Design the sequence.
């Protein structure tokens, strides 16, 4: 058995919440640079330069890259030989998220009820997805998900006969209808298969799929590449000003599904890619 300190989890999540909201990854900065180099629309090029500069200033001053510091979404993979020493793991996550948003002076955006809408004041509760795995490792993928992009996401229960053409059409329509609302250039997570609730989770997980051990599928890679090319022809561009860079990336995850259905979900992420993986 492997014992992991409750306080270690709390402090790691607290620090990570602050970091992902204030410190742009090298990956994100490289995406800005690539967009700047390929843009021939001068206004769009300037927008990308400003987005990169905003990220650099945020890191220097340790202030949020965006005022919407999001909902905390966590993917847990807990080994069967892991013991949390000093408390319950969900309590550690809640405490870490709360302290991160408080000590990092991050905007608290969660309301206690969708109708009465009283702010909880601490950005709780987070959204937690848990998977039990063999071994003695605990891994946590943390994602800060803003509402502007989340609101533009969509799900559709298709007929199997619609196939890949129907899937691509749905993804293109979803991104086109979103336009500038999700603060492009965006990352597009696509879930295919499972069922109604499962496909939405697949699309969310696709946004951070590089953190999971998923065998590479040449067919999926080709579809991702094709979709990215087609989406970048929509001429939405950075912040909706047109140009070649509407989409930074497209990521797809698939699972088995019922013979009579073809569930598809599209989860959109804004240009600020805010995620991190913790391994204990």
Sequence:
């Amino acid at each position: 058995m492997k014992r992991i300190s409750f306080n270690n989890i709390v402090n790691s999540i607290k620090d990570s919440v602050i970091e992902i909201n204030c410190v742009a990854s090298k990956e994100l900065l490289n995406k800005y640079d690539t967009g700047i180099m390929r843009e021939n629309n001068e206004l769009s090029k300037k927008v990308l330069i400003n987005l990169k500069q905003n990220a650099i200033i945020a890191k220097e001053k340790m202030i949020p890259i965006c005022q919407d510091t999001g909902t905390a979404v966590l993917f847990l993979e807990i080994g069967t030989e892991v013991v949390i020493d000093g408390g319950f793991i969900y309590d550690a996550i809640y405490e870490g998220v709360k302290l991160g948003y408080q000590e990092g002076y991050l905007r608290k955006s969660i309301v206690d009820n969708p109708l009465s809408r009283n702010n909880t004041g601490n950005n709780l509760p987070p959204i937690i997805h848990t998977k039990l795995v063999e071994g003695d490792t605990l891994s946590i993928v943390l994602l800060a998900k803003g509402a502007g992009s989340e609101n533009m996401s969509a799900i559709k229960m298709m007929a199997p006969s619609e196939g890949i053409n129907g899937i691509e059409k749905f993804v293109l329509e979803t991104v086109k209808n979103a336009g500038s609302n999700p603060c492009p250039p965006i990352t597009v997570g696509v879930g295919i298969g499972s069922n109604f609730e499962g496909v939405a989770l697949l699309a969310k997980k696709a946004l951070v799929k590089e953190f999971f051990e998923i065998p590479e599928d040449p067919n999926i890679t080709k579809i991702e590449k094709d979709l990215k090319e087609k989406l970048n022809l929509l001429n939405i561009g950075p912040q909706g000003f047109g140009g070649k860079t509407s989409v930074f990336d497209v990521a797809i995850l698939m699972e088995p599904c019922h013979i009579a259905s073809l569930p598809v979900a599209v989860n959109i992420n804004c240009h600020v890619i805010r995620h991190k993986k913790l391994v204990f």
Observations:
- The domain at 147-273 is CATH 3.30.1330 (60s Ribosomal Protein L30; Chain: A;).
- DSSP finds eight helices and ten strands in the chain.
- The two ends are 13 Å apart (CA to CA).
- The first strand starts at residue 2 and ends at 5.
